[in-house]
Amino acid sequence: MRSLNAVPDRAQFLYPVLPHGLTRGTFLTLVETVAPALGISGAALQTFRKMAEKTRPSDWTSHEAEPVCFMAQCDMARAFGRSISRIRAHERDLECAGLIERRSRANGSRCGHIGCGVFFGPAIERVGEFLALREALERERKEAAWLRGQRSAHLRRLKSTITAIEGIEPDGTFAAELRDLLMSWPKADALHRMSLDCLQAHVDEADEACIRALDTLEILRKSSGRPPENERSHIQDKNEDKICSCNPVVDEVTENDNQTRQPSDGAFIGALSPESLFRLCTQDMQFYLAARRDRHGTLRAHDFTTVAHWRAREIGISPWALEQAIAQMGEALATICLIILDAKVAEPDIAIISPGAYLRGMARAHQNGRLNIVGSLIGLAERTKAKGAAASTAGG
């Protein structure tokens, strides 16, 4: 706090101003957004806003004056409903945080005539820093939302795998261990309080738990004579009934003899092994899938679902849009839709302004019985085949 016995001659200075488009009100909202990262308490922030609202709005956008609150601390205490000691403490905290500068006479008095009060120039000078910080916090918020979505997918996968293991080995210890593991996982609301690093570590652990459970399930299926998971269609998991309920479609696929085939949904979808589905994916998605296959030795439904989540984020689909699609279509069909949508986004001749809106449209079409998923997969297969032939011709 600066103590003044005379009014300084500041006429020669140009005061800092907010950049174009920001006003006092929008700036205060910006400060409130970044305040937790600055270590400012909610109570001190309320005092900051109330003091700022006692300034002239034009002073925040004019080089001719600096916004200042001339109220004495006792007057603030009465007006803001706080004790004088709390007002003093808040002012000290705000000054230490670099948001205000306090100037007063030696006796602590404040008055506009003597140029003493609470000045907001320090906060205005940091507006660029605050804008960058808000952007970084928004990126972290979105990243955390995506990680929570991945945890939800891993949770669903692990629960269904535990149920399948118990169906083969009701008295086995591994399923009981997995259920104990699930009980130790933080609840959904606790995920919001976790740091980004801790959340990422937990999601990675959940992913690995799913892989271990799926490996065990496959071993049990083989030993019991049941079809192992990787010999079934990738998408015929817990949502099998939903996926095979698509309306029959007739899609012309031109072969060398121009023959038209009419595959049924069940026959076509049932033929989708993990490797055949891998070949339908974009190079970006294949990159992630190949890394998981190299690490775990094979590809599973879980791998496609996990990678589809990553690609959804990269092509601009919000966590909310993806969760809505999963709720409406089931995880397996939503994964297939993301593979198709990712391929469409990668096509230079196809203009998709909003992938999130496109995915919502696919979900609505599924609910209305109009989702031509088999036709889309056949079309994707033909385009992939044509690209491969063109690349071979060019290479030859």
Structure commentary:
This protein is mainly alpha-helical and 396 residues long. It has 3 domains: 124 residues, Arc Repressor Mutant, subunit A; 94 residues; 164 residues, no CATH class. Helices cover 62% and strands 3% of the residues. It has 18 helices and 4 strands. It has a 4-stranded mixed β-sheet with strand order 1-3-4-2, with no helix packed on it. Helix 14 crosses helix 16 and helix 15 packs across helix 16. The radius of gyration is 30 Å and the shape is elongated. 30% of the residues are buried. The N terminus is likely disordered.
- Structural class determined from secondary elements: mainly alpha
- Radius of gyration based on Cα positions: 30 Å
Helix content: 55-70%
The helix tally amounts to 18
Average pLDDT over all residues: 84
- Helix/strand order, N-terminal first: EHHEHHEEHHHHHHHHHHHHHH
**Number of beta-strand segments:** 4
Q: Tell me, what's the shape?
A: elongated
Distance between the termini: 78 Å
Residue ranges: pLDDT <50 for 5 or more in a row? 3-8, 229-263
Neighbour order of strands in the largest sheet: 1-3-4-2
The number of domains is 3
Largest beta sheet, briefly? Answer: 4 strands, mixed
Strand composition percent: under 5%
Topology of helices and strands:
Elements: E1 2-3, H1 24-38, H2 42-52, E2 68-69, H3 73-80, H4 84-96, E3 101-104, E4 117-119, H5 121-125, H6 127-168, H7 173-184, H8 188-191, H9 196-224, H10 240-243, H11 265-270, H12 274-280, H13 283-296, H14 301-314, H15 319-329, H16 331-346, H17 355-367, H18 373-395
Parallel strand pairs: 1-3
Antiparallel strand pairs: 2-4, 3-4
Helix pairs in contact: 1-2, 1-6, 2-4, 3-4, 6-7, 6-9, 6-14, 13-14, 14-16, 15-16, 15-17, 16-17, 16-18
